[in-house]
Amino acid sequence: MNTYKNVFCSIIFQVYVSLLISHHTFIIIPHASAEQASSYLQKKSRNP
Q1: Which of 5, 16, 22, 46 is at 20 to 30 A from 40, Cα to Cα?
Q2: Distance in angstroms (rounded) separating the CA atoms of residues 25 and 18
Q3: Strand intervals (E) in the chain
């Protein structure tokens, strides 16, 4: 029972870490593209 709990916790931890890593990359990439898009729109609105 105790070893089963340890294995379960380690699996949950691995899944959590992998989700965290992928989630961070998914946050960083759209955030950068959103910043580029907003700056592009601002430049375009300033220079019609």
Answers
A1: 22
A2: 11
A3: none
Averaged over successive runs of 10 residues, the pLDDT of the chain (48 residues) comes to: 86 84 65 76 75
Could you tell me the two tokens for 38?
């907003």
What is the per-residue pLDDT for 29?
A: 62
Taking the C-alpha atoms of residue 12 and residue 6, their distance in angstroms, rounded to an integer, is: 10
What pLDDT is recorded for position 25? 63
φ, ψ at 47 (rounded to 5°): -110, 85
Distance separating alpha carbons of residues 11 and 39, to the nearest angstrom? 42
d(CA 33, CA 16): 26
